[in-house]
Amino acid sequence: MSYFIDTHAHLNFPRFDNDRETVIQTFQALGVKQVINVATNLDTTIDCIDLARKYPDEIFATVGLHPHYANEHTEESFKQMVNYAKESVVVGIGEIGLDYFRNPVSPDVQKKVFCSYLSLAVDVDLPVIIHCRDAFEDCKNILKDFLPLKAGGEFHCYTGDLNFAKWLVSQGIMVAFNGIVTYKNAPDMQEVASLIDSNYFLLETDCPYLAPQSKRSQRNDPSNIPEIASKIAQLRGVTIDEIARLTTANAKRLFFKTEKSIG
């Protein structure tokens, strides 16, 4: 039987502090069996690892520094990140990347930090989780210096065009879709979701942000993955079960060794 994997969530964030256990029970009952819980800085890296340890085989962690926090990068903090990247519950390096939208961190600092974490991903042989907003060309130019990424990667919250998505796929990088794909004003993303190679797309929530259309402006969580999958199934003219099968297989291939996956 097919199940879903949410490949980008932030269940450690304070908005889940009052009902985290209930949220986890609910989305598992709806067939979302595994979640990649993604770090944004050193503190959240620690939180992600702690949460993954509490829910073994259900929640997994990453290590990373979001471009909004790139100014926190120091030699000492990076050494700690390198050590955390070796934890058994850690399945990726991210989220890392570039964000030029209302970000007080200078592009030069962001680029330097992005390169440091791409190098770490290569060193520890883990896939990367890439955040990119209003910085596609710079992101592409930096990635070119590290390609091919042996362990692959996820381009999270994809908002680029079809041509850029095809380039990512040609480099072995998967594209992740979240609640935005269900919005009426997202025709470009819907085009990508309908045409992208079936072996290179993933589902995510980016919760607590970006709830799908039926719950827009509400707190998001992995229980909304089926709605996202349903929209993509409609766009591709297939069943939701086929989307579950494809995206779960893709997520397992990218993030999990055999012993880390329940399927």
Q: What would CATH call the architecture?
A: Alpha-Beta Barrel
Q: Give a count of the beta strands, DSSP E runs of length 2 or more.
A: 8
Would you give the CATH topology?
Answer: TIM Barrel
The CATH class name reads Alpha Beta
Rg measurement, Å: 17 Å
Q: Give the spatial strand order of the biggest sheet.
A: 1-2-3-4-5-6-7-8
Low-confidence stretches: 258-263
What amount of the residues lies in strands?
15-25%
Following the backbone from N to C, one meets helices and strands in this order, namely: EHEHEHEHEHEHEHEHH
- Main structural class: alpha/beta
Reconstruct the topology from this structure:
Blueprint: E1 4-9, H1 20-29, E2 32-37, H2 42-54, E3 59-63, H3 75-84, E4 90-99, H4 107-124, E5 128-133, H5 136-144, E6 153-155, H6 162-170, E7 173-177, H7 187-195, E8 201-203, H8 225-236, H9 240-255
Helix pairs in contact: 2-3, 4-5, 7-8, 8-9
